[in-house]
Each structure stands twice: as structure tokens, then as C-alpha cells.
Design brief:
Length: 305
């Protein structure tokens, strides 16, 4: 498959004219026509409506062009990463996978602290639901997973972990016009609209013991569920309910007055942020980083608590 055919199709969409698109691509018009037909043959569908002037892409053409350009962007990004790696003394690209909420704020600050203390690290980040991150770790598709855990929690089988940070789940909601919490727990018989983590987010399970301990489970009525903390944050800012979210994620919103804490102080849930690895899939670079961080398990580089 010649991926540059998608650039030909893109130029044709932009110009609506075979001659102009051919000129932009330094091709003859017959050559461009043959290239577009070969792409149509590969897809198995008509991609260009030639019955009108200017010519337009069909629905199939629009869809395959969008997919092709996305693929080209990914390919070009990876090529630039590889070339950058080749210019460094140590050419290995360390791949981290993390939950979305950690990747939003904690990870950039932690990586900067790591590079300040350890030295430059060529790296990339995948943000996904935790089960997918752990699956990729076991397969060897990523080098490390950064994940939330309860204090002193045991790591999954065949996985090693060290603490690299601390956080808290705190109950937040939108302020009302008077600067008080829009949703308050003053009346024991009033159910609060609850924005909760979905089943794909194990962080939600860390919240359940606290809710049960303080008798809050029956006082919360789920109105929205999502595995991404960022999505819950948006709904909380819109005033749709109460959400327990990582302090590191929402502290800027609290400072700006978009969110505020609600409920009692002891309704907060302490969290550890752990760096996980598969000890059977390591290399010199990842072992070096691990050896640097392991002695700092009791004093992480970054804390948001």
C-alpha cells in the first residue's frame, strides 16, 4: 500500500480539479488519475464523484481520506521520534502507560522532576483505562504503568511497584451564587446527584469503603458514570452533581472558583501513585530508571497531597 496516495486524494479534495491536484503533486494528470483509480481498487469503492465539476469526494472517499491522514500523521510522528532517538546517546524510547487523570497533570510534573534528578529520558505516553494499561504491560507493549492505588496496596501478580507520588480523592461540586457548595450534605434525607467512576476505572473501588463507612452510599443517586476523571470533572463544573476526584486534577479548578470541596474533611480518600513494571520484560534503560527510583520509594520526587 502506497500511503502517499492519500496525499493525492487530499489534494484532489482541496482543488476539486485533477489538473490542479496533479500540478500540486508534481504529477501529470494521467498519472494522478491512475493513482486515484489504484486507491479506489484497493478500497473497493468509488472515492471520487467525477460526474460534477468541481469533482467531489464520495462518502467513502471522505471516510478513507480521514483514516488515511490519521495513519500518516501517526507514521510521521513515529518517524520523527525514531530520528530523534537516533541522535541521542541512548536511543531507547521508554513507554509509559497511565490512567487519563494521572496523565493530565501529575505525569508531566513527575517526568520533569525525573529528568531533573536522573537525566534526560526519551519517552512517550499512552493514556488509557487501567485494565488496558496492565494488559499492555504484561504483553511488553509498554515499559511502565503509572496507576492509583490505596495506601499499602498489593500489586497485581507478576507486577512490581514502587510509590512515586501521593494524591487524594476529594468530594467536589460547583459553587452556587453565594460561594457555597451547590450540593451540600446538611439534610440527611436528601439524595445527592452522584457523578461516579465507571467499572473500567478501578479507582472507583477505592472510594467504596469510605462511602460505606460514613453511610454515604444510600445518600448518593448516580446521574452520570464515566471511567475518565476528566469527563466527571467537566460534569461537576457544569453543576450536574458531586464527584470524588483526584486533588491533583481539580486543584486548579478550586483555585479558580470553578469547583469547591463539599462534605466532611474525613470523606477524602488517600491515594498512592505507583510505578509498575513487568520484571520479565526489562532492558538496560528501564532497569537503570527503576534502580534510580526504587530507593526513593519512601520519598517520591513529586507529591500532590
Amino acid at each position: 500500500m502506497d500511503t502517499t496516495l492519500f496525499r493525492d486524494l487530499e489534494r484532489l479534495r482541496q482543488t476539486g480539479n485533477f489538473s490542479q491536484a496533479a500540478a500540486l503533486g508534481n504529477l501529470s494528470q494521467p498519472a494522478l488519475s491512475r493513482r486515484i483509480k489504484s486507491l479506489e481498487a484497493w478500497v473497493g469503492a468509488l472515492l471520487v464523484d467525477r460526474s460534477r465539476q468541481p469533482v467531489q469526494l464520495t462518502e467513502a472517499g471522505t471516510r478513507i481520506l480521514e483514516a488515511g491522514l490519521q495513519a500518516l500523521t501517526r507514521i510521521e510522528h513515529e518517524r520523527s521520534q525514531i530520528r530523534a532517538a537516533m541522535a541521542l546517546p541512548d536511543k531507547y524510547v521508554v513507554t509509559f502507560a497511565t490512567q487519563h487523570s494521572i496523565g493530565w497533570r501529575f505525569y508531566p510534573a513527575w517526568l520533569q522532576s525525573l529528568e531533573t534528578a536522573y537525566g534526560p529520558v526519551l519517552s512517550r505516553l499512552r493514556a488509557d483505562d487501567l485494565p488496558n494499561c496492565l494488559r499492555d504491560l504484561k504483553r511488553g507493549d509498554v515499559d511502565y504503568v503509572i496507576a492509583y492505588a490505596g495506601p499499602g496496596a498489593s500489586d497485581a501478580p507478576d507486577v512490581e511497584g514502587i510509590v512515586i507520588g501521593h494524591d487524594r480523592l476529594i468530594p467536589v461540586c460547583k459553587p452556587d451564587g453565594d460561594g457555597a457548595p451547590l450540593f451540600r450534605f446538611d439534610a440527611a434525607d436528601v439524595q445527592m446527584p452522584f457523578l461516579r467512576f465507571g467499572a473500567a476505572a478501578p479507582i472507583g473501588a477505592l472510594l467504596e469503603p469510605m462511602l460505606a463507612k460514613h453511610g454515604l452510599t444510600s445518600r448518593l443517586h448516580t446521574v452520570y458514570e464515566n471511567s475518565m476523571a476528566g469527563a466527571l470533572r467537566i460534569r461537576a463544573r457544569a453543576g450536574d452533581g458531586v464527584a470524588w476526584l483526584p486533588s491533583s486534577l481539580v486543584s486548579p479548578d478550586i483555585e479558580a472558583g470553578h469547583l469547591m470541596c463539599t462534605g466532611a474533611q474525613d470523606w477524602q480518600v488517600p491515594l498512592e501513585i505507583r510505578l509498575l513494571r513487568n520484571p520479565e520484560r526489562t532492558n538496560r534503560m528501564t532497569r537503570s530508571i527503576w534502580s534510580f527510583l526504587a530507593p526513593r520509594d519512601a520519598a517520591p520526587l513529586v507529591t500532590t497531597d
